[in-house]
Amino acid sequence: MLTRRHLLTALGVTGIATAAAACSPSGSSGGSDGDQKTLTFRLWDDTAKAAYQESFEKFSKDSGWKVTIDVVPWDEYWKQLSLDVGSSEAADVYWMNSANYVQFQQSGNLMNISDVVKDDTDKWVKSVVDLYTRDGALWGVPQLWDSIALFYNKKLTDAAGVDPTQLRFDPAADTDPLRDAGRALTVDGAGKHPGEDGFDANSRSQYGFNSQADRQAIIGPFLASNGAQWEDSDDKYAFATDQGIAAFQYMADLVNVDQIAPSAADTNENGDFTRDLFTQGKLGLFQSGPYNLKNVADGVAGSFDWAIAPMVAGPAGAKSLVHGVTAVGNARAQDDKIEGIKKLLMWLGSADGQRPLGEQGVAFPAHSDAQGAFVDYWRGQGVDVQQFITATQDPAPADTGAKANAGLTAAMPIFQEIFIGRKTAKDGVPEAQDAGNDAMK
What we know:
Layout: E1 32-33, E2 36-43, H1 49-63, E3 65-71, H2 74-86, E4 93-96, H3 101-106, H4 126-131, E5 133-134, E6 137-138, E7 141-146, E8 149-153, H5 154-160, H6 177-185, E9 207-209, H7 215-225, H8 242-256, H9 264-267, H10 273-279, E10 283-288, H11 293-300, E11 306-309, E12 323-329, H12 338-348, H13 351-359, E13 364-365, H14 371-379, H15 386-390, H16 404-420, H17 425-439
Parallel strand pairs: 2-3, 2-4, 9-10
Antiparallel strand pairs: 1-2, 4-12, 5-6, 7-12, 7-13, 8-10, 8-11
Helix pairs in contact: 1-13, 7-8, 8-16, 8-17, 10-11, 13-14, 16-17
């Protein structure tokens, strides 16, 4: 399974390195392997490798092209890719995320998918297609996607009388269903709840909700659900509005005032802290994505019943972030590989090409006809994942600028200061917006 939060965002994922993870694809790929022509395919997550191997076996039989897979872990991926692109040694086809593709597209390194793949494109998840459409063309073949929903501990929510399907927030209200549910689910060592006399936040044994500086699962959805923009049409940050400031203060207050979320001293240092609390049975509500399905299933291991509800909605509704990984074609590949690259991209865009990703429970395939395989996989595990599909119907915009990584890297430390309570949202949000925009110049 794709292993960390922010899998598809700028602050991404960690993969598991294979022995050849750091190798340039040029070291293992020539134009042919004996009598069989060879292509290279690069990705950043080792756990998706087996699914692609299964897919490429069928492709090779049908096309005559062999595909070798190169896994480079996230921490090295973008640096290595830049080096390989600069030396004309990039893989023939490689994984790309929405926060990075624009810089490669603008420099002429990506094939125009609109010219390559003609069939079944209407079957790809529209929100992913939109992410990778720029200058009137599509620049990657959608492969997999994730969205946001709400994991909940049935034992805890039942005991607290909380209905996870009815949770909403409103920064302008004195109280709301999310804060009420969070108080009911948060318990200190003496069994007291926030707001009760003698409640000791330092002895909490159980928490209500995972409010934290998580761009994909918390910050993005809460901003959009409160009517705030993330960026404008010029790819500049635009979240320092009244709605954006109110949303940030609300999220921080869940930690520091309402005391229903763990301290940011823990979550700023370890973004998986709340996920681990959930699997330990110490967190009632955990807003996250399908990238944590296997982590949750393996961590809970039958110790309590859990399920998935819609993400928490705000005044503007429920606005999930939807991110997608695409496969991009190397526009500067050797001439004798161009035909094979185009065939591989067409295969990767097909339901048959993507189905192993679903059948092995790796992720939601981007082709609608293959998504049922992922749904069936999790149904077999006793988990209904429909809420993630529903969340794609009205998503919030995601990062797409050429320097989105630089912007979020500059803004995130300031977001963390807001969550830990050292800055107010009124002061910190404009500061974060300016820092991010300065970094993206």
